[in-house]
Design brief:
With 390 residues, this protein is α+β, with helices and mostly antiparallel strands. The protein has eight helices and 20 strands. A hairpin with a 5-residue loop joins strand 13 and strand 14. It starts with a strand and ends in a 6-residue tail after the last helix.
């Protein structure tokens, strides 16, 4: 038997709220299957499981907010038989909480024991279950407790201030999460910054030719050319692609690029495009369009939130010249692109108007230094002069 715990879906996530289980006890599941939907401070995420098995027990109920690492379910290995009912499980995981003893008071922060029917009824009647003393087994709040709470003469809950608008609450929560992650980044990561102005005439000409005759829905964008160029350059500089955890760098061979996407309600999220270096531009364009669409619709997968090995942020459409980004921990680098604009340029001794873009690199001094960063930007520049090879 093994546990399925709430994964961390980014450095800015400490907890999540279970929205829905997509499985039930007895269901066989396979690696990569979505088993639950969890609401984070930024979006609802489809959480995948990373091991084949059979669902034995679901330990968390929809609506519960739990810390990262909390055991949400137990599963049986393929072919394993379920233990007899009442048999104790050996070795509880960190974050798993034991049930309260009968009659024990509800402790602030402890898991509230309540049946699904009682929770649903409480939501319908607007009853604050945290203020009730349960009469069920182990102090669980029952349906009868909910009904009793709304009877005439039942003790009234203390008056509280009117609740803020849910959307305002969510935006505030998102800003707090982003601020916490960025504060950690600036506190823990010794950043260095470099930038390079890159001529884009060849890339623009090649892109115009590649899009000739294509319907609008199948045209390539410069953003996807830049993403592929970053992945190609990273192949020569693995010290910019990976994670810094537990005091050491963990390089990752494939470039899972986190793409910074602004949300319509405000805030920013950077889910991963997986293995960008191995995919043709047409496939990347389709996957990027799908990723942006699902991000703004709130339909991301946990692997897309936890896998990015480097982040690329592109603020060219917003008109800025350059972006000096903050590294998203535990990643060790971030690449930024500003707008492509005609700028004065000297070519073969003549002053010309050249379309250029300012590419920037923010990198972790614990893993690389300015010399390596400069070589990476030079490699990126070279890749963008040979777009036909991407």
């Amino acid at each position: 038997m093994f546990d399925f715990s709430l994964p961390s879906l980014g450095a800015d996530m400490d907890e999540g709220k279970l929205v829905e289980w997509k499985v039930k006890p007895g269901d066989a599941v396979c690696k990569g299957q979505v088993v639950a939907i969890v609401d984070t401070s930024k979006a609802a995420v489809d959480v995948e499981i990373w091991q084949d098995g059979v669902v034995h027990a679901l330990l968390i109920e929809p609506g519960e907010r739990i810390p990262v690492g909390t055991v949400m379910a137990t599963l049986l290995e393929p072919g394993e038989k379920a233990p007899p009912k009442g048999a104790a499980r050996a070795g509880k995981q960190a974050g798993e909480r034991a049930p309260a003893a009968p009659g024990a008071p509800v402790v602030e922060g402890a898991r509230l024991r309540i049946s699904p029917a009682a929770r649903k009824r409480a939501e319908a009647l607007g009853v604050d279950v945290a203020r009730l003393k349960g009469t069920g087994p182990g102090g669980a709040v029952t349906l009868a407790d909910i009904e009793a709470a709304v009877q005439p003469g039942a003790p009234k809950a203390p008056e509280t201030a009117p609740a803020a608008h849910p959307e305002a609450d969510r935006n505030a929560e998102m800003r707090r999460a982003i601020a916490a992650a960025m504060s950690r980044s600036k506190r823990e990561i010794p950043h260095y910054y470099l930038s390079e102005t890159i001529p884009m005439a060849r890339a623009q000409r090649w892109l115009a030719q590649a899009n000739e005759g294509r319907p609008i829905t199948e045209r390539l964008l410069m953003a996807v050319v830049q993403l592929k160029a970053v992945a190609a350059a990273l192949a020569q500089f693995p010290d910019l692609n990976g994670f810094f955890r537990d005091g050491r760098f963990e390089p990752v061979q494939a470039a899972h690029i986190g793409v910074a996407i602004s949300l319509r309600q405000g805030g920013l999220i950077a889910p991963a495009l997986h293995d960008v270096g191995s995919k043709p531009l047409d496939q990347l364009m389709r996957e990027l369009a799908d990723l942006v669409k699902r991000t703004r619709a709130g339909s991301l997968r946990s692997s897309e939130m936890s896998d990015p090995t480097i982040t690329v942020t592109n603020l060219g459409e917003q008109g800025v010249d350059a972006v000096m980004g903050v590294i998203y921990p535990p990643q060790v680098a971030l690449v930024g692109f500003g707008r492509i604009a005609a700028r004065p340029w000297v070519e073969v001794g003549a002053l010309v108007a050249m379309p250029t873009v300012v590419a920037s690199l923010a990198a972790d001094h614990r893993v690389s230094d300015g010399h390596r960063g400069a070589l990476f930007l030079a490699e990126l520049r070279g890749r963008l002069q040979r777009p036909e090879e991407l």
